[in-house]
Design goal:
Elements: H1 5-16, E1 24-25, H2 33-40, E2 47-55, E3 61-67, H3 74-81, E4 85-87, H4 90-97, E5 114-118, E6 126-130, E7 136-141, H5 145-149, E8 152-154
Parallel strand pairs: 2-6, 3-5, 5-8
Antiparallel strand pairs: 1-7, 2-3, 2-4, 6-7
The structure holds 5'-O-(N-(L-cysteinyl)-sulfamoyl)adenosine (5CA).
Length: about 160
């Protein structure tokens, strides 16, 4: 089965950047961290949740890449973002990333996004991230995530 156009876009970006990672698109949903973990057979903590927030004063997008085992507390992010933040609405998410909620990848967005990486993800050797659709994922080396995304590593454990 060929990849859908959004999943293929992420495969192309990975290839262009020289990563030897393969996007897998399944029939079953990998929309949530729990579904993705069940689908690929890993711990929920090894799933990268890609959450888009929005700065309340700047309006800018902020991407939080957190372990599927953690819940993000917005009050902790504001100390790094230097402003209050709120969860972005689905339209804003699509506008700034080019992808829909449930399939937001860690890279390949329409515009560069200020990014934070949960240090808990770096406790694993391999992690799985969404690849552009709620049915597409890819496995990667956790240690590559900060460089791949330009993200700042911060503590986010709940
Ligand atoms: N494909 C999976 C794992 S690879 C995935 O993308 N998981 S996720 O956690 O990154 O994306 C789903 C998350 O989107 C949910 O945890 C939830 O926090 C967020 N979300 C769901 N609905 C909305 C909504 N209406 N507005 C903003 N965020 C939402």
């Amino acid at each position: 089965m060929p990849l859908s156009s959004s999943a293929q876009r992420i495969q192309d970006v990975l290839n262009e950047l020289g990563y030897d990672y393969t996007v897998i698109e399944a029939e079953e949903s990998t929309r949530t961290a729990e579904e993705a973990a069940a689908r690929v057979g890993c711990e929920v903590g090894q799933i990268v949740k890609s959450l888009i927030f929005q700065g309340k004063s700047s309006g800018k997008a902020i991407l939080i890449l957190t372990s599927g085992a953690n819940r993000v507390d917005v009050n902790r992010i504001k100390a790094y973002a230097n402003e209050k933040i709120r969860r972005a609405d689905p339209e804003f998410v699509r506008e700034c990333t080019g992808f829909a909620i449930g399939g937001i990848p860690p890279l390949g967005h329409l515009n560069p996004i200020e990014t934070y990486v949960d240090e808990d993800l770096l406790r694993y050797e391999e992690i799985w991230a969404a690849a552009g659709t709620p049915k597409a994922v890819f496995k990667m080396q956790a240690s590559e995530l900060p460089k791949m995304t330009g993200g700042k590593v911060i503590p986010l454990s709940s």
